[in-house]
Structures are given as structure tokens and as C-alpha cells.
Amino acid sequence: MRQVRIIRISFLICAALTVIAFWSGFYYGSSGTDEVQLVTENTTDIYKESVTEAAGDEVTDTDAVESMTEVSPETYYLRRNGSYLSVYQGDSAEVYFDTGIRVSDLPYALQEAAGEGIAFEDLGELYGFLENYSS
């Protein structure tokens, strides 16, 4: 009987210590957002300094944001090229690559959209679509 009581008390103590450790991890633990914010601020400052040195004049916050938004991802278009689909990069009339997917294999709504061009923001999105409709 005495051993059972010791085991129960030991179990309760271990459970209480586990709950306290778990709670203190949330209460005293760091989420890491402060570190990420510091890295972002330092990166922006370094970017501003390099642009200032290159341009020879002062850069404001809006200048840094505007210059960073000028770099945009290339848009890819999936268009009908005869009876097959081809990928075009941007507004170019030159074929980026041929897919080997027949237009007739697509649902009717996508066949109609392929005539004008189906836009994709990046290659990952495009490849995901192609993977779904390839044989």
C-alpha cells in the first residue's frame, strides 16, 4: 500500500512539473519575431546605404519601397498554339516552351480561356497546372 502511495505522489509531482515547464515555455519563451524584425530592419538599412552610395544622394523610405516593387515576377501565359498548348513568357509572341497537352483534353471553359491566354504568376503555379492536365 505504501508503494502505491509513493508511485501516485511521484506521478502527480511529475505531472505538475510537466505542466509548469510547458506553461513557462509559453510565458517566458520567445517567439522569434523580434529577431526577424531586426534582420529586416538591418537589411533595409544596408539596402538604403548601398543605394545612397551608388546614387550619391539621400534615399527616403518611399524610394526604397518603390525601387523594390519595380522588380516584379514574370507572368507566364498558357495559350493555344494550333491544337496544343504552349507557354509564353510575358507579352512575348515567342514560345517559351511547348507542353504537348492537346487543347481538346481540357474542359470547355479552359479551352475558351486558352484562346486568350491563361495567366500564371510564377513557374511553380504554371507547372502545378500542367501536372494536373498532363497525361
Concise structural overview:
By secondary structure, the chain is an alpha+beta fold. It is built from five helices and four strands, in the order H-H-H-E-E-E-H-E-H. The protein starts with a helix and ends with a helix.
Overview of this protein structure:
The longest helix has 27 residues. Strand 2 and strand 3 form a beta hairpin. With about 140 residues, the chain is of the alpha+beta class. It has a four-stranded antiparallel β-sheet with strand order 3-2-1-4. The chain is built from five helices and four strands; from the N terminus they run αααβββαβα. It is about 60% helix and about 15% strand.
Please summarize the sheet with the most strands: 4 strands, antiparallel
Structural class, from helix and strand content?
Answer: alpha+beta
Total strands: 4
- DSSP summary: helix tally: 5
Give me the secondary-structure topology.
Layout: H1 2-28, H2 33-55, H3 61-69, E1 76-81, E2 84-89, E3 95-102, H4 108-116, E4 118-120, H5 123-133
Antiparallel strand pairs: 1-2, 1-4, 2-3
